[in-house]
Structures are given as structure tokens and as C-alpha cells.
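About this split. The held-out portion is used to measure sequence recovery: a designer receives only the C-alpha cells and must propose an amino acid at every position. Recovery is the fraction of positions where the proposal matches the reference. Here is one held-out target exactly as it appears in the evaluation file.
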């Protein structure tokens, strides 16, 4: 139940902050209504799962499944993950590389969205099932794991959760968990105050010569296995939209729909992509432009295919895999494109490029300001400096983005 209490507390705190920031009870209530509307189905799924986990039939089935998961006596971990698509992909690569570094272990994932996690973690050896995070440590299933991990911007081991007897067949994993505990001790002030001190974590990572993609590895002292990650995609979408034999670029201007903002556009979203695309289309009329995204995306003028809300994530993956280039603000689809080997041109604003940027991408940093990620609870809602629009994204000329994107295209085609 701690997960529910944390989420209710976070929602209440943000509503209070919105009321104080906007001097409006109406805006605070509107935010709560948006939260309830966007999360109602997810809340119902979590409550249903929570009730199910307490039934005797569930307990018996879980004991049988856990016995199967303990292949040859190797450790069995519970891993709680927090974040959107990009965060989960980073975590999946970490678990992939931890398996490669220390040897076999099994794990279940506890998360907010089980279908999403099943898709992302399914290709990692040892993955069992994705379960709602409210179910962790509840009922008979709560005592079967040899350790509990929580992964967000950092990786932590739940205090007192390690059962050393379960690591007889994998002492290297036990040593790695001890390394993680040592790293967490050094980062305690940041870890205890996530996500409100995540900006500080980003700085610690950068000055440790790490980035978002490999800071978890840095904490565990394991090697990074590379950006490429084998994730299933649905290539039927190529035939569905008659894209065989054609060349295209993809563009996305939204954000994680699980992060509810009080306004229409999040501060991290670049507002000038339509002008950027018009200039690119003038220089390269042969290229098709495909817009992907969901409810947080704004329709762009001048695209050849508007696929907002018309594709699954697996289908978006296939479109990204086949794209000559991907344009985006910093988002989960950038992580997905990088996993699939597609280069991205990424416009940064509140989130820091030196932490979130991939070295293979074209990372465009703000001309003015920027980097206010988690400077306060409302960083995604409005400019913390109280400017009418976020200066970091609004002042970046679309011509600069178009030029860098065209250069990147030319480099890709020449390679």
C-alpha cells in the first residue's frame, strides 16, 4: 500500500503547488480531475490486482511458478521499476548487462504498467512476469524473493531484503548487490529525495563520466553492453501504410502520458517542429515525414503521415527502425530509436543533454537557459522563472534544427 500512499501524496503536493503558483483553486482542482481521468483505468487495474494477490488460489499458483523460476537454485529477485518508456529501456539494458556480468538469476518486475514492462523486459534471460507494483511484498509471494531492488534514476537494494542463502549458486551477484549498497550510501541524500533531487543525481552522473544510459552500471560497477537492445517490433505497420521501398523520417513532439501536466504543452516539448519540417521538406522533397505519438503530441502541419494515436508501441518501433532519422524533444522514443540503431536529432530544454543525451545522436542544447529539470515540482508545467513561455525551447530557431537534421541525414547516407 506504500505505493498508493506515495502517489496520493505526490498528487496532493502538486495540486497544492499549482494552487500556490497560479493563485487559483480552480487550476488545482482541474489538475486533480486530469489525474483522475488519465489514471482511472490504471488505478482500477492496480486495485483489481491487489485484491487478486490476496486470494488463496493466487498464493498456490505463485508458489508453483516461483519454484519453476528457481532454475538450478539461482537467485530470484523482485525488481520494482519507476518511469516511462525511456526509463524502462535504460533499466532493461542494465538488467541485461548485470546478467552478462554476474551470471544467471531470475527476476520479476513490479511496475505501473504491466503490458509495457512485459514488452520491454521480455527478451532478458531470467525474466519471469511483470506485476503491478502495489503487489510487491504482499501476500505469500512477498517472502519468496532473495532480494528486492528498486530502479529509477538510481538502483537501490531494499534494506534487509537480501537473503544470503539464496546466492549460493551466484556469489558474484551477491557481491554486485553489496557494491550497489555502497554506492547508495554515498548518494543517500539524493536517493532519499527522489525525484525532487534528480537534477543533482544527473550532475553526479556526469561528473562520474556517466550518463543516464550507464549510470546504473556505474553504481553496480558492471560494464555497459551498448545502446543496441533487442526489443520486439511489429513490421506489419510498414505494409499497412504502404511504406515498402520508401524513405522516411519520424518526428515526435510529445511526452510520457503517465506524467500529467496542468497545461496543454509540457515545457520540454519543442514548439517549432512544424517550421523545422517545412524547411527540411523544401531541401529534401523526396523524404516522407511520419509523425508518431499519443495523446500528449500536437499535430504538426506538413507531415505526410499523421499517425498520432494510430499505432502501438511495437509498430512505432518498426517505424523508428526503418527511419532514416528521428526528430524529437527529449523523450522515451529517443531511447527506443537508439535501441533500434536509428540516429535522432534531439532538442533539449529543461532536461540536461550532458546527462540524457546519447553520444551517437545530434543533441541540440538551448541558446538561453535550460537544465531546470526537477528544480521544483512544476518544472514540466511552466517555466520556473515565471516567463510566459519556456525560453529554453522557444528561442531555439527552427532553421538551426533543420540544418543540423539535414547534415545528419547526409552523414547517414554517406556512411
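Reference sequence for scoring:
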Amino acid at each position: 500500500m506504500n505505493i498508493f500512499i506515495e502517489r496520493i501524496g505526490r498528487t496532493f503536493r502538486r495540486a497544492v503547488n499549482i494552487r500556490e503558483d497560479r493563485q487559483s483553486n480552480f487550476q488545482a482542482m482541474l489538475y486533480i480531475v486530469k489525474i483522475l481521468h488519465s489514471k482511472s483505468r490504471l488505478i482500477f487495474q492496480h486495485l483489481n490486482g491487489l485484491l487478486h494477490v490476496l486470494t488463496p488460489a493466487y498464493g498456490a499458483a505463485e508458489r508453483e511458478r516461483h519454484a519453476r523460476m528457481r532454475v538450478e537454485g539461482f537467485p530470484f529477485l523482485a525488481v520494482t521499476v519507476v518511469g516511462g518508456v525511456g526509463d524502462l529501456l535504460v533499466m532493461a539494458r542494465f538488467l541485461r548487462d548485470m546478467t552478462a556480468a554476474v551470471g544467471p538469476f531470475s527476476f520479476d518486475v513490479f511496475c505501473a504498467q504491466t503490458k509495457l514492462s512485459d514488452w520491454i523486459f521480455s527478451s532478458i534471460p531470467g525474466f519471469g512476469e511483470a506485476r503491478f507494483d502495489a503487489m510487491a511484498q504482499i501476500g505469500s509471494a512477498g517472502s519468496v524473493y532473495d532480494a528486492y531492488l528498486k530502479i529509477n534514476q538510481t538502483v537501490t537494494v531494499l534494506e534487509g531484503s537480501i537473503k544470503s542463502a539464496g546466492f549460493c549458486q551466484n556469489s558474484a551477484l551477491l557481491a554486485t548487490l553489496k557494491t550497489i549498497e555502497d554506492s547508495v550510501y554515498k548518494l543517500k541524500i539524493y536517493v532519499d529525495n527522489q525525484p525532487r533531487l534528480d537534477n543533482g543525481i544527473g550532475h553526479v552522473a556526469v561528473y562520474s563520466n556517466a550518463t543516464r544510459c550507464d549510470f546504473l552500471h556505474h553504481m553496480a560497477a558492471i560494464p555497459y553492453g551498448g545502446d543496441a537492445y533487442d526489443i520486439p517490433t511489429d513490421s506489419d505497420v510498414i505494409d499497412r501504410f504502404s511504406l515498402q521501398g520508401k524513405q522516411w523520417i519520424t518526428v515526435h513532439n510529445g511526452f510520457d502520458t503517465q506524467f500529467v501536466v496542468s497545461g496543454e504543452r509540457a515545457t520540454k516539448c519543442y514548439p517549432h517542429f512544424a517550421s523545422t519540417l517545412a524547411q527540411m521538406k523544401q531541401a529534401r522533397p523526396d523524404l516522407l515525414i511520419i509523425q508518431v505519438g499519443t495523446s500528449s503530441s500536437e499535430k504538426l502541419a506538413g507531415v505526410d503521415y499523421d499517425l498520432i494515436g494510430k499505432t502501438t508501441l511495437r509498430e512505432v518501433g518498426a517505424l523508428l527502425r526503418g527511419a532514416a532519422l528521428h526528430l524529437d524533444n527529449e523523450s522515451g522514443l529517443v531511447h527506443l530509436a537508439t535501441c533500434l540503431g536509428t540516429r535522432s536529432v534531439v532538442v533539449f530544454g529543461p532536461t540536461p543533454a550532458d546527462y540524457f543525451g546519447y553520444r551517437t545522436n545530434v543533441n541540440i542544447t538551448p541558446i538561453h537557459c535550460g537544465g531546470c529539470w526537477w528544480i521544483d515540482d512544476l518544472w514540466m508545467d511552466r517555466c520556473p522563472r515565471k516567463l510566459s513561455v519556456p525560453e529554453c525551447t522557444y528561442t531555439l530557431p527552427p532553421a538551426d534544427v533543420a540544418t543540423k537534421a539535414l547534415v545528419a541525414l547526409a552523414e547517414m547516407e554517406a556512411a
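Annotator remark: The mean pLDDT is 90.
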